[in-house]
Amino acid sequence: xxxxxxxxxxxxxxxxxxxxxxxxxxxxxxxxxxxxxxxxxxxxxxxxxxxxxxxxxxxxxxxxxxxxxxxxxxxxxxxxxxxxxxxxxxxxxxxxxxxxxxxxxxxxxxxxxxxxxxxxxxxxxxxxxxxxxxxxxxxxxxxxxxxxxxxxxxxxxxxxxxxxxxxxxxxxxxxxxxxxxxxxxxxxxxxxxxxxxxxxxxxxxxxxxxxxxxxxxxxxxxxxxxxxxxxxxxxxxxxxxxxxxxxxxxxxxxxxxxxxxxxxxxxxxxxxxxxxxxxxxxxxxxxxxxxxxx
Length: 294
Known about the structure:
The chain is mainly α. The protein has two domains: about 5-25 and about 40-45 and about 200-280; about 65-185. The chain contains 13 helices and no strands.
């Protein structure tokens, strides 16, 4: 691939930032002007702040419990720590992620967080017309119960991540992107930890397809994720990058190993980085390093 070296160079530089700030090293953590100015995710989704909170407070306590699937869906629909913390423990200690009650969830959030916001802006959350965001998300969660039951049944029969992803998208307003977030979380629970396609399947979004076109040198418009043939070609290319990540020239052996999720996510971030580097646009969020200082 024409620009595979740049893909991994950028990934190593971003992970070095994570390691330096984790050690309490002083600023600056990088000499890359783009990484200094704009926000990019960690190479590993498991290291991002929201996922760390979810893992420690919800996913791990329920990792071997069948309620983990519903709890994951509910959490990712809001995808906001402050909202989840409110739902996790009320005045009576009632954990709504373990025993859901939509009416109590609304009453608790309107009382304790009357001004919101209730959802994270990391991705678009669509809800029915005519409802405010909170009521709309709670309606969606309740409507997803039958789909969750179907997905649970599939998991118990050794379903693949791809199969569970497809089932989840059957729920009203549960889109392709959020379904991928959910199955990525479930990969770390008893439901999908042994899925046979962890290292072979991913759900490439528009950013990943653009990023893959940049890495191959074919251009950002070469692959249309809406076309199955293009999507399959991108997934195949992602598998090739995953194999390359196992080469110590590209990724130190003492660092955590990549899976297909890391490849997909880093193609998105590479698209943002190269778009900025080439003067084609800028990321929406600025990097605020003071938020990460000890």
